[in-house]
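Project outcomes to date are best conveyed with an example. Our students and postdoctoral researchers have been running inverse folding experiments weekly, and each run begins with a structure described purely in tokens. The record below, which covers 223 residues, was selected by the lab manager from last quarter's runs and is presented without edits.
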């Protein structure tokens, strides 16, 4: 499989939560399988990525680096990173789309993402003009992040989320409320309960399909 871009995500380990999330989106990135989604086109936009929380956004490898080199670098980095404290997930509509987000502040999760962004940035190819032009209406801080790290929503602008839908419109609209109720029922066993991140995933975007696949799951520091 030819890989176009790589990313570092956190994805639930195999089990009931991962299965529920994969069936919601219609794509199981761990097994490379398409599934029937209960919300159809509403999950089309996030479907290609699989269910995940972004820690380092998709990037092309810099010249001279290989997939094996990336995996080795993530292995080394992860061995020194402590898992963040468990947190409860809740449904929220952010930026017009529905997502699972942590309840309250998660400073150690933000710190984890920042360390991964910094620790792997030398492996990221510089942005090309097409990639730069896809970003619009950014704040000054987000513009600075884009130039420094290739992605606007890092460091102080990082907000952890696990996307469930594409754009829904107004939060108080009838359609948005219907989707929220469907999601509440679908994820009832997995929200408002502690969620623990114990590993991170090296992800690859297949050039042919544009779908992201789990290449390797790497444990964070133990103890």
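After processing, the design step wrote out the following sequence:
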């Amino acid at each position: 499989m030819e890989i176009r871009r790589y990313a570092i995500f956190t994805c639930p380990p195999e089990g009931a939560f991962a299965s529920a999330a994969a069936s919601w989106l219609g794509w199981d990135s761990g097994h490379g399988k398409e599934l029937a989604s209960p919300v159809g086109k509403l999950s089309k936009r996030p479907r290609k990525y699989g269910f995940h929380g972004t820690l380092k956004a998709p990037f092309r490898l810099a010249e001279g680096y290989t997939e094996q080199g990336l995996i080795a670098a993530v292995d080394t980095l992860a061995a020194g990173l402590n898992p963040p404290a468990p947190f409860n997930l809740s449904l929220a509509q952010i930026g017009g789309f529905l997502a699972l987000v942590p309840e309250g502040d998660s400073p150690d999760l933000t710190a984890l993402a920042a360390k991964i962004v910094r620790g792997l940035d030398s492996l990221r190819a510089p942005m090309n003009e097409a990639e730069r032009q896809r970003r619009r209406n950014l704040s000054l801080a987000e513009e600075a992040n884009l130039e420094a790290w290739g992605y606007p929503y890092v460091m102080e602008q990082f907000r952890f989320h696990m996307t469930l839908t594409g754009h829904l419109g107004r939060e108080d609209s009838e359609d948005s409320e219907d989707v929220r109720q469907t999601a509440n029922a679908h994820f009832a066993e997995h929200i408002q309960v502690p969620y623990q991140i114990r590993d991170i995933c090296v992800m690859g975007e297949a050039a042919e399909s544009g779908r992201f696949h789990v290449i390797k799951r790497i444990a964070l520091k133990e103890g």
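Helices lie at 16-25, 44-47, 67-78, 107-120, 129-133, 140-149, 174-186. The first helix runs from residue 16 to 25. The training component of this project remains on track.
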